Amino acid sequence: xxxxxxxxxxxxxxxxxxxxxxxxxxxxxxxxxxxxxxxxxxxxxxxxxxxxxxxxxxxxxxxxxxxxxxxxxxxxxxxxxxxxxxxxxxxxxxxxxxxxxxxxxxxxxxxxxxxxxxxxxxxxxxxxxxxxxxxxxxxxxxxxxxxxxx
Length: 150
Known about the structure:
- By secondary structure, this protein is an alpha+beta fold.
- It has two domains: 3-75, no CATH class; 80-138, CATH 2.40.50.140.
- Helices cover 42% and strands 21% of the residues.
- The termini are far apart.
């Protein structure tokens, strides 16, 4: 197979890797790039295919732990709503202890829970985030009353 075909395969795999960031296609693309170099001197497609498969396997096995670490770092990024912890907000819809109410924090309306009654206009502090529900404490309480962790 001509070297330019292997170069095209490498470019396509590299482009897909940029979108998926799996760190798997990158190594197969590198193998295709190295096979393009081999194809300049070796015209037999069988030897090119064997070389491509061998280099792909070696690269995938050799970089397996590195790839896993990269993926793990990417997956451990904090969710944006966790930045709300510690921020102050205002109760929009009051609620009894343990029931859902609503609060406005940073200009956005969120569902909330608290283990003390909340009335409209109360100032609260975000203690925890559980999905789209904030657990809040009433601001200004001596020692702060903790929410129920819902």
